[in-house]
Amino acid sequence: MKNSHRSVTVRSGFTLVELLxxxxxxxxLAMLIMPGVNYAQELARRxxxxxNAKNIAEACAIYMNTPRWHRKSNAGPGIPRxxxxxxxxxxxxxxxxxxxxxLWLLVKYNxxxxxxFLCPSAEINRDFRAPTANADExxxxxxxxxxxxxxxxxxxTSEAVAxxxxxxxxxxxxxxGLKASELAIVADSNPRSRVGRQSLSxxxxxxxxxxxxxxxxxxxFLGGNADWFSTTTIPGTNPLFNGxxxxxxxxxxxxxxxxxxxxxxxxxxxx
Length: 271
Prior knowledge:
Elements: H1 16-64, H2 99-108, H3 120-126, E1 145-148, E2 153-154, H4 158-163, E3 167-168, E4 184-188, E5 217-221, E6 226-229, E7 233-234, E8 246-247, E9 269-270
Antiparallel strand pairs: 1-4, 1-9, 2-3, 4-5, 5-6, 7-8
């Protein structure tokens, strides 16, 4: 009697179809996961940016309370302001003599490192860089933050008149109505202008900073506190305007074109 043997074929590995199915599943999972990963990375960059803004504001406060660094100020010790030449309505965007030059005083006096002026999101989204070691001013792509306008204005409030402090920037003899924790002095860069551009785009009115792809901006205050805001309008930070909301990228009662604030509590951050 013959024995019948059934041959058994043992398959090893995947078929092409199975391999394509596995690759497709992995691709779908990657597409589902990546937005979450990207968002987590952006949140980490926002956190670092917020720390930068806070550190800049704190350095401003140290400068403000150290009189030996102040020159030719009629109003007494104040937050960083370039006096030689003076910040005016015609040079406020200049990296050499304008608002950015005022902020550079923090670097000049070793109050903060150069890397603090680079928002990590601006590095990714806008190809910004920190100032190099041999730089002595900010350029259009090395300053990721805007700073409270240092163009002098006339404050005609009764408190200012009583204090004899009507021609002001921000000083240690500030208007008593000013709340340091509510006055924005540093934020992600104003989308309406940049270093070296002596104009403000009306088309960008009300739009968030470009640093974080228009999602919002980190804002730091004179009191050293900082927070993230999803709009350019900061609620309730303007007591002298009856507590009205304040757009940090526009002048309230002053002059946008001249880079001039409307009052001591007007947070107008440029360029």
